[in-house]
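Input record (one chain):
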Amino acid sequence: MTNLSFQRRLAAKVLGVGKGRIRFNPERLEDLEDAITREDIRRLHRQGAIEVVKPAGTSRGRARARSGRRGPGSRKGTRESGKRRWMRQVRALRRTLRELRERGEVDSKLYRRLYLLIKGGAVRSRRRLLEIVEAEKRAAGS
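The corresponding structure, as predicted from the sequence alone:
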């Protein structure tokens, strides 16, 4: 193996890159040994005996592996908070409302209005639902 450090340094200077980015074609080593001028280097570069390696970018591999990670540490509230609790609450209220309609305590118009109030989160408990029904009965009676 011949020492081509001079040619590497010269090529780096001529091509405006670092020495680490210069690659020599192993099949053209004889031509490279003879290259002693800047013009020789430019000629060999045009012929493909000397090439400039693209700089390495920052790998996104680790960043990709990290993305999308969520664990228990990022959760706010208890297991009961959020959707499950909401579903249990709404289902209980709707069940109560249905029972009231079947017993005839609520007509279809009031049923629909209360149903939408439950859906909108305006009714927080069964007790509150029953209070609203009582208030409606009093208002209708007077």
